[in-house]
Write a structure and sequence with these properties.
The chain has 904 residues and is an alpha/beta fold. The chain has 32 helices and 23 strands. It folds into 4 domains: 218 residues, Rossmann fold (3-Layer(aba) Sandwich), CATH 3.40.50; 199 residues, Glycogen Phosphorylase B (Rossmann fold); 236 residues, Spore Coat Polysaccharide Biosynthesis Protein SpsA, Chain A (Alpha-Beta Complex); 140 residues, no CATH class. The longest helix has 27 residues. The radius of gyration is 31 Å and the shape is globular. This is Glycosyltransferase 2-like domain-containing protein. Pfam families: Glycos_transf_2. InterPro entries: Glyco_trans_2-like (IPR001173), Glycosyltransf_2 (IPR050834), Nucleotide-diphossugar_trans (IPR029044).
């Protein structure tokens, strides 16, 4: 049985709707669903201890309303006590008078919670908004109850604790809940029974800043069913019932009538639009919300509308039921937000900058197929703007009320039906992938939680509904690693449902050199790390695991977005499980292997990599990578640029071993642990920290810098998915495949909406530009960096033969001079090795390219033209200005000169 507790204390709200979405999944799995609306938790809604009336009619019929038995009998616990604690303890920070009483009351409440859960046979709990410190007494009691009930019933993680409003998101300017580190708030407990959920990466970052020890914290955004709102039999009379002409333009403002929502901005905007020269004066504004919630605010807004002369165009329509697609139609003739959207031409969300954390009306508008406008509130870009959603955005830095430029932008959208149609098409396409992902993500989280094998037998009371029902299915647990496993293949996945069956089949079909199944000869396992996929990726992986029991396949989840984060999570998962084995032979080497879900591996890929690592006793084994030439048939100029890059890489990999690429490499477990594993570097992108793309590369540099060897396994081959070129062709040509201006980011080449023209070849000028960026990216990293990190390589006969003995000696001397001049102690950090690599490239480019022509083919040609500024310096001062160029502008001009054409 699922028990829900909403700290919102209202019969229906965005918080309750999110509960319904999650509970629906468990209901379909056979769980009975009960919901406590939190009337006995939050004091400011004037419903404390009030009996339920007709609230159940607002919810699906499979949700039963319930509450904790006997709370009204807890001595000293009432609305006045809760209000006093918020005022004196949370806001004023003085717990001298109420502190002991809080603890005593919390203990009594916790016992009543446990007794109620036991009576109902609860096996899952979903807490909504529990961290907001409106009632810290109840929150403390809930944590006590979770620990006691989980321990006594033998449960694992049986609680989903989701936060919609944290202190830094809910009116932080007012300081309602104090300031960081929020000493009076009940800090989240790192409990073995709780999986925490927050709505976006910024909330996760702040939560971990507050409580860095939380291990089970995932990102789960609010989600919306992508169901376009339409005029139908139920809502056809909506305009007539509210006095809105059929042909009038309608702006919808679905919100509560409270000051923080800044509805005065919408009234001001309406007045400006009615006077706009490009619009007719037939425009209405519909504002939802209960007038009784804040009568003073309603009075103020009505007076403001009269003062601006638009009172006859503002409809205060009252409370509407939530989006009907989530909770069903309201009973009787009541209307829902979706009914409003069916008649609206525009949805407005001109909220306060610091009030909204997610912006549900925007998501609802996108799902319903209506264009929207918004303020650039604090987290708009985090949730919507950075994802590419299109809308006029009111810049709060430009003014507190809509500016003329913003009014013009809204008028352009509102006055042109075709512009609205195109905007809706873009937003709905993005929303279908980004906002309608709840069922899969929640289902995956539920499957990853450790619940009971069977639910406790219920002994329900009179309000609990039927006494029988299907036993909840057991959740999946990672199986222990067998003693014989020698390798774990880590496969990060994000929206790879289409590619995953073939990838997993190729991993299952790995063979030894004698053609026998490798899983028998050298046992290995696969760890699929889901990185917040919004498609059927996880279902595909689980179905494959069930159909192939002779290959261990584990599926885990990593909530922090980014392939680097997912790869690290999988490798650390494998390290921990391999170390936990007590019967494995300690002398046998164990390997962590990275694979990529959009590439294909040859049948002996894993065997050849394993043999190279075993024979060479190297720390890292690097694969060979290739494209199928037939994919580029009819595109000779593009293929020539790719082929030249691959030939250069083959030369340097044979000489130096190369550096690992996430598409395929292996690392010995001890070497992995020696350097601290994969480190996630962060960079600033659009004002926010995001994981750096090159975790695999930087990890290899750390291993080589620690004195360990890297071996190249040329017969361990990975076929690169050509979409890496096809989907980013324009960026490849211009050297922006992975970013520019010092920022290196992963382009989402999985996006099916990116234009793909597989018949397109390059012009001669484009081919030259693409090759120049590719070779400029390749040469410093693959030809110069290995000897910069390990100068002793220049003493190797094969390396000296490649460079020629004379060039090898001069390179060695110059490396020593630059390191001494720069006072570099450790070259492994990215901004320590880039500058000297760039400097050496410019100083020795002509000679290095001569050696590449001699070994990789004459078509390698001459070095690309120098930057204009370096062509103009006196020959005698070339080195001097190279230093200025590479050091002072490393994250600007030099970075963009070398570009990121290495996507080949």
């Amino acid at each position: 049985m699922l028990w829900g507790i909403s700290f919102d204390a209202t019969p229906i709200s965005g918080v309750v709707v999110e509960f319904v979405k999650t509970a629906r999944i468990l209901s379909e799995r056979g769980y009975r669903v009960h919901l406590d609306l939190g009337y006995d938790v939050k004091a400011d809604k004037n419903a404390f201890f009030r009996p339920y009336r007709d609230e159940a009619a607002l919810l699906p019929d499979w949700v039963r309303l319930a509450r904790i038995d006997g709370l009204d009998a807890v001595a000293g616990y009432d609305a006045d006590f809760v209000t006093a604690v918020l005022r004196e303890v949370v806001q004023a920070g003085d717990d001298e008078r109420l502190g002991p009483r809080i603890d005593a009351v919390a203990e009594q409440i916790s016992r009543r919670i446990v007794d109620t859960w036991r009576r109902f046979g609860v096996s899952f709990v979903l807490v909504e908004n529990g961290t907001l410190p409106e009632n810290i007494t109840y929150t403390r009691a809930l944590y006590l109850a979770i620990e006691r009930y989980g321990r006594e019933e033998g449960l694992g993680r049986f609680v989903l604790w989701r936060d919609h409003d944290l202190m830094w998101q809910s009116e932080p300017g007012a300081g309602k809940y104090g300031t960081f580190p929020y000493p009076q708030a009940v800090a989240p407990a790192d409990s073995p029974h709780i999986q925490y959920l927050v709505q976006h990466a910024e909330a996760r970052r702040r939560m971990l800043h507050w409580q860095p020890d939380l291990r089970h914290l995932a990102v789960l955004p609010n989600t919306f069913s992508a169901s376009p709102a339409v005029v139908d039999e139920h809502n056809a009379a909506f305009r007539r019932d509210h006095g809105i002409p059929a042909q009038a333009l309608l702006i919808a403002r679905p919100t509560r009538l409270i000051p923080q929502k800044r509805i005065d901005r919408d009234i001001h905007l309406l007045a400006a639009l009615l006077a706009h020269p490009r619009l007719a004066d037939d425009i209405y504004l519909f504002v939802t919300g209960d007038r009784a919630e804040s009568p003073a605010e309603y009075t103020r807004l009505a007076a403001f509308a009269r003062r601006l002369g638009v009172a006859d165009r503002v409809v205060f329509g009252g409370w509407l039921a939530p989006h009907a697609g989530e909770v069903g139609r309201p009973a009787g003739r009541g209307y829902s937000v979706q009914d409003l959207f069916a008649h609206a031409d525009l949805v407005s969300f001109l909220t306060s900058g610091d009030y909204e954390s997610y912006g549900n009306p925007i998501g609802e508008a996108i799902a319903a197929g209506v264009p929207y406008i918004t303020t650039g509130y604090d987290l708009y870009d985090e949730v919507y703007g950075s994802a590419g959603f299109q809308a006029p955005v009111m810049d709060l830095a430009a003014g507190d009320l809509p500016t003329p430029d913003f009014v013009d932008a809204v008028a352009d959208l509102l006055g042109d039906a075709e512009t609205r149609r195109r905007t809706v098409a873009v937003n709905h396409r993005l929303g279908a992938r980004r906002l309608a992902l709840g069922r899969r993500l929640v289902g995956d989280l539920l499957d990853g939680m450790v619940g009971p094998a069977t639910a406790p037998g219920p002994t329900p009371g009179p309000t609990s509904g039927p006494t029988s029902g299907p036993t909840p299915r057991p959740t999946l647990r990672p199986t222990p690693m067998d003693a014989g496993i020698r390798m774990t293949v880590v496969l990060p996945v994000y929206n790879e449902a289409a590619n995953l069956p073939a990838v997993l089949a190729s991993l299952y079909g790995q063979r030894g050199d004698d053609g026998s199944p490798l899983r028998v000869r050298v046992p290995y396992e696969v760890v699929v790390v889901d990185n917040n996929s919004t498609d059927a990726t996880v279902d595909v992986a689980r179905r494959f695991a069930a159909a192939h029991p002779d290959l261990p396949v584990q599926v885990i989840h990593e909530g922090e977005q980014g392939v680097a984060c997912a790869r690290r999570a999988g490798m650390q998962f494998a390290v921990a499980r391999s170390r936990a084995r007590t019967d494995a032979e300690p002398a046998r080497r164990f390997y962590l292997v990275s694979a990529d879900a959009d590439c294909r591996v040859d049948p002996t890929w894993l065997w050849e990599l394993f043999v190279a690592m075993e024979v060479g006793k190297a720390a890292i084994g690097v694969c060979d990578y290739y494209y199928r030439a037939e994919h580029f048939a009819g595109r000779p100029r593009l293929w020539a640029a790719i082929d030249r890059t691959l030939r250069c890489r083959a030369v340097t990999f044979r000489l130096f071993g190369g550096f690992p690429d996430g598409k395929g490499f292996a690392v010995e477990r001890g070497a992995y642990e020696k350097v601290g594993g994969i480190e996630i570097f962060y960079q600033v992108q659009d004002g926010r920290f995001v994981p750096h793309l090159s975790d695999d590369w930087d990890f290899g540099i750390s291993v080589r810098g620690s004195g360990e060897e890297i071996v190249y396994a040329p017969r361990s081959r990975v076929e690169i998915n050509p979409r890496r070129v096809d989907h980013a062709l324009d960026e490849v040509i211009a050297g922006r495949a992975y970013g520019q201006g010092g920022t290196i980011v992963m382009r989402d080449i999985r996006d099916p909406d990116l234009a793909v023209d597989r018949a397109r070849d390059l012009t001669a000028a484009q081919a030259r530009q693409a090759w120049e960026f590719s070779v400029k990216d390749f040469t410093p990293k693959n030809t110069i960096l290995p000897v910069l990190l390990t100068p002793s390589l220049l003493d190797d006969d094969a390396v000296a033969d490649f460079f020629t003995p004379s060039l090898a000696r001069r390179l060695g001397r110059r490396i020593a001079e630059i390191i001494d001049e720069m006072r570099v102690v450790d070259l492994t950090p990215i901004h320590a090795y880039k500058t000297p690599s760039y400097r050496l490239y410019f100083e020795f480019a002509d000679e290095i390219f001569a050696r590449l022509r001699a070994t990789a083919g004459s078509d390698i040609g001459l070095p690309p033209p120098l930057p204009t500024c370096l062509r103009e310096v006196p020959a005698g001062r070339f080195r001097e200005f190279v230093r200025y160029y590479c050091e002072d502008r490393e994250s600007g001009a030099a970075h963009d000169y070398f570009g990121n054409g290495g996507v080949f």
